[in-house]
Amino acid sequence: MIWFLEGQASQRDILLGAREALPAHVRIIASHRGDRPEITGVADLALHEPEASGERMEWVIRTALEHGVKVILAGRLGAAYEAERHAFEAAGLTLVTGGLSAQTFQWVDDKAVFTARAEAAGLACIPATTVTNADELAAAYQACRASGEVCIKPVVGIYGQGFWRLREGLDPFRCFANPDRREVAFATYLQAYAAQSLREPMLVMPYLPGAECSVDMVCEAGRVVAYVGRRKTGVHQRFERDTAATRLALAAAQHFQCDGIVNVQTRDDGDGQPRLLEINPRYSGGIGYTRLTGINLPGIFAARRLGLPEPRSEWVEGVRVKPITVAVAALDGQPHVPY
Prior knowledge:
It contains twelve helices and 19 strands. It has helices at 11-21, 37-40, 53-67, 78-82, 85-90, 102-109, 111-120, 134-145, 174-177, 186-193, 244-255, 297-305; strands at residues 2-4, 28-32, 45-48, 71-73, 94-96, 98-99, 129-131, 150-154, 164-167, 183-185, 202-206, 212-220, 223-233, 236-240, 258-268, 274-280, 320-321, 329-331, 334-336. The radius of gyration is 21 Å and the shape is globular. The model has no long low-confidence stretch (mean pLDDT 91).
């Protein structure tokens, strides 16, 4: 039996991929802290996780032993579970968090540390300056804009929260009228940033004009056993393998000893060369799209961790995907899923 703990909304895609690959007699557990039957209802057993973090760890171990679980995949809270790895191993449980130690999370969650470690390893990344006050921000911006456009993002964060392109000559109201563009006049940003003396650390860096590549992969102690690269082109996503971007992503996952279903992101510079953006030691929101390429990453992960034959992979060239919204009706606490 395998248990998928609360993750991103794509937890549903992870469960469907695992179910497709595993024999019918292998049961799948899914759990979540929220009321998410559209996710947990596609598993053989749906559980509700405790809210309190201290209570949750003990509950997971106890429940896993009660149901004969062999493998547990941490989703959203990988670092917290990694800190308790000793307790899971003492109970005879295989815990997969995204890394092999707390050090992996310390290195990849803090983007300033991540950039420094990547540069030291010779991995092509984006040079960045950490700022904590308005004077440092102004100085970093002036130094960076000498070579081109500038952007800023939090040292710690996910989903692109807090990311802005810093532009000269923009209408100060533009960022409010069209926030999805993520563009703001630098003077406007600086004024707002300076309104409070203490700020969370931010990274100032060159803005790269090229496309992003998001590489979903299955890793085992730093070794990548399967992967698919995704690249957005307008409203569609296309897929790639064995490109400069995917090779860089695989090298980064190996260096940082990723373990589990993880995601590495790159972005092309003005010359079309990929630069490392970040490593997410958890599965991505778009991992479900990758199954359409003929490679079932969740299924490969689940089968290999349970010591079962992994699903056959047949790469399909030229796949183009456009995500759509599908309504799921939850009836009496159980989802009615239109397959």
